[in-house]
UniProtKB/TrEMBL annotation:
This is Peptidyl-tRNA hydrolase. The record marks 94 as: Stabilizes the basic form of H active site to accept a proton. Its main location: cytoplasm. Its EC number is 3.1.1.29. GO terms for molecular function: peptidyl-tRNA hydrolase activity; tRNA binding. It comes from Winmispira thermophila (strain ATCC 700085 / DSM 6578 / Z-1203). It holds the Pfam family Pept_tRNA_hydro. The active site is at residue 22. It is found in: Cytoplasm. It is an enzyme of class 3 (hydrolase).
Length: 192
């Protein structure tokens, strides 16, 4: 039997963070749950998960309930006694180097200064997993980066971010069935 396909949406717990740029990973897995799995999230010790199948494959959606910079702490509990392959783990997070409306699918690489990715790489002991970056853009000159990603984007910007999320959700069945590279052409195209 094939190992589950894990999709981890990064974000911070709590209502005050729900609509912020830093929580686009949570927006993504919540949309996958409602669109493809029709399953609710259930809380575990350090994360909330929703389970189901897409294209006959078991899919586990994860929202870490730790704060962003401790996102990797869940993996010592989540992947215990389970066989998994790097391309069966997709982490979805915000990326300030991409403008709103654009995303990037990538296999491996560094953490690009993202504390959630840094924590995951540290806990897994490897950077070898798939990432989907959702563009949120850079803050205006003089605005603190942390304040920017922890703020709610204006309506037009949020709509573009949501387009990027929906693009990933739409192409997720292909990502599960096909090679990662085959989906990059669509997801990595520049839209704005």
């Amino acid at each position: 039997m094939a190992p589950p396909y894990y999709i981890v949406g990064l974000g911070n717990p709590g209502r005050r963070y729900a609509l912020t740029r830093h929580n686009v990973g949570w927006w993504t897995v919540e949309r996958i749950a409602s669109t493809h799995l029709h399953a609710p999230f259930k809380e575990k010790a350090l994360w909330a998960e929703a389970r189901g199948t897409i294209k006959g494959r078991e899919v586990v959606l994860i929202k870490p309930l730790t704060y962003m910079n401790r996102s990797g702490a869940i993996f010592s509990h989540l992947l215990v006694d389970r066989t998994w392959l790097p391309w069966h783990l997709v982490v979805v997070c915000d990326q300030v180097d991409l403008t709103p409306g654009n995303g990037r699918l990538r296999i491996g690489g560094g953490h690009a200064g993202h504390n959630g990715l840094k924590s995951i790489i540290q806990h897994l002991g490897s950077p070898d997993f798939v990432r989907y970056y959702v563009g949120v853009g850079r803050p205006p000159e003089g605005e603190d980066l942390a304040d920017y990603v922890l703020s709610v984007p204006p309506r037009e910007e949020r709509e573009r971010i949501e387009e990027t999320v929906l693009r990933f959700v739409e192409h997720l069945p292909r990502l599960i069935e096909e090679e990662v590279e085959s989906v990059m052409e669509v997801l990595n195209r520049r839209y704005y």
